[in-house]
Amino acid sequence: MNSKPQIAYIQFPGSNTEAETVAAVERNHMVAVPHLWNEPLEKLRDYDGYIVLGGFSYEDRSRSGIIASLEPIMDQIKKEVLMGKPLLGICNGAQILVEAGIVPGNKNFDTVVGLTENKRIQNNQIVGTGYYNTWCHVKANKKSVSAFIEKGSAPLYIPIAHAEGRFVMDKELLKLVVEKNLINYSYCAPDGKTDSSFPTNPNGSIENIAALGNAAGNAMAIMPHPERTINGEGDSIFRAMYKFLKEEKDFSYRALEYSAKKTKVSPFKKNSSTKEVLISMVIADNEAGSVEKCVQKLGGKTTIKKYLHFEIEIDGSLDLNEIYKTDVLFNPSKEFVVNLENKKEVKRFLVREKENIGGKKIKEVLQKRFGFNEIKNVQKGVVWEVSSQKAHTKKDVDLILNSHILFNPISQVCNEY
User: Fold this and answer.
1) Which of 227, 292, 353, 355 is catalytic?
2) Is 137 known to be catalytic?
3) Catalytic pick from 35, 137, 162, 225?
C-alpha cells in the first residue's frame, strides 16, 4: 500500500463525533472519508478500513444500536471484514457491531453478546446506574492478535460517555472469549491493575471489558472514546490500525466456534399477588414508528405499538391511583393508563431487562421519597404490539423475533403477552 489508507467513517442518523474521528484518523497518517448509511453499497469496496461512529443512531430507539445493525450497509461491512479489512466500532458503533454479530463474530454473525445498562458497584452494592461520563484508564491485552493494539503500549487515559456500555454474555461464551484473548482492552487503575468495582470499572462490565474483538483480530467494539482526547491519549489504537494496514500481512478470517442459543419466548405468567399497569402515549410514539419502519424494510407487513408495562407487588391494599399521583410511573401530560383487549391478528410481547435495574430504581423512589413502604417490588418492561395483515402474522412474528429488534436475547427476556 503506497498511498495513505482510506478510512470510511460510517454515519447513521444520530451519529456524532465526526470531527474528533477525522482528526484522530488523519493525525495517524490515514485519510478519513465520510460515508452515509444510505449511500451505494459498492462504494464501501473502495475503502481500506472502517470506523462506525459513536452517538445515538436512530435515537437509540428500541435499544442502542439495533436499528442501525439491521441496515443493509452492515451486511456489506460483514463482507469487507471477511476479506480482512479493519473495522472499529466506537461507543454506539460498538453497540452496532455487537448487535450485528460482527463482534465476537461466530459463523452466522449471531447476536451472542449484550451491551446493557450501566451498573456501578462498590462493596457488592449498586451505587449508581444510567448514563455516566468520565475519563478512565484501559489497558491492552498483550496476548490479543487485535489490529487495534500497539505493542508495548501503556494504559490509555480516554473518556467514556454512555448509558448502556456494560458487556454481558453467558458463562460458556465468556470462557471462550477469555481463552481466545478476545478481550482487547480492560478497564484498569492508572498503574494497570484491574479491579471489578467502581470507579476502576465504571459500568460493571463483566471481566472489566472495555473493548471486545473478533477471533481474526480485524474487528473491535470499544465503549470508551479513543478519538475524544485532548492530546491524542487514545492515538495508540489508530496507530495500530495504520500499522496493520501498511504491513499487508496474509489474512485468513476465523469465526468464533460458538453456537447461539435458541431464542425462547414463553407465555407471560403474572404473579397472583401483583398488579399490572400499562401506559400509552397521547402523542405519536416515535420509537414504535421507527421499529415499525425497520420491520417493514425487512419485509414485514405489520404495524407496531408500544406500551410501558409495570408489574407491582403490594403488601396490603394500596390504591394504584395514589401511586399515579406521584407521576413516577408516567407523565400525565403526555401518557395515560390503558387496558388492552384481545384482537385477532395481533401478537404482543413483554420485554424486560434481566436485572430489572429500572424497576428497582422506581421502587426505591416510591418507598424513600413518597413513603409507599407497602410496595415490595416493581418490574418494569415494554409491551410491543404487532398487528399484521391477514395470514401474515406468523411470518411477521418469526421475522421480528429472529431479527432481535424487540429484545437482545443475552441481556433481556421476552414473553408472549
Assistant:
1) 227
2) no
3) 225
42 catalytically annotated: no
Q: Is 414 one of the catalytic residues? A: no
Q: Which domains does the chain have, with CATH numbers?
A: 6-247 (3.40.50.880), 266-416 (no CATH)
Q: pLDDT tens digits for the chain (417 residues)?
A: 668 999 999 999 999 999 999 999 999 999 999 999 999 999 999 999 999 999 999 999 999 999 999 999 999 999 999 999 999 999 999 999 999 999 999 999 999 999 999 999 998 888 999 999 999 999 999 999 999 999 988 999 999 999 999 999 999 999 999 999 999 999 999 999 999 999 999 999 999 999 999 999 999 999 999 999 999 999 999 999 999 999 988 999 999 999 998 888 999 999 888 999 999 999 999 999 999 999 999 999 999 999 999 999 999 888 999 999 999 999 999 999 999 998 888 999 999 999 999 999 999 999 999 999 999 999 999 999 999 887 788 899 999 999 999 999 999 999 999
- Catalytic hit among 91, 136, 188, 294: 91
3-state secondary structure the chain: CCCCCEEEEEECCCECCHHHHHHHHHHCCCEEEEEECCCCHHHHHHCCEEEECCECHHHHCCCCCHHHHCCHHHHHHHHHHHCCCCEEEECHHHHHHHHCCCCCCECCCCCCCEEECCEEEECCEEEEECCEEEEEEEEECCCCCCCCCCCCCCCEEEEEEECCCEEECCHHHHHHHHHCCCEEEEEECCCCCCCCCCCCCCCCCHHHEEEEECCCCCEEEECCCCCCCCCCCCHHHHHHHHHHHHHCCCCCCCCECCCCCCCCCEECCCCCCEEEEEEEECCCCHHHHHHHHHHHHCCCCEEEEEEEEEEEEECCCCCHHHHHCCCCCCCCCCEEEECCCCCCCEEEEEEEECCCHHHHHHHHHHHHCCCCCCEEEEEEEEEEEEEECCCCHHHHHHHHHHHCCCCCCCCEEEEEC
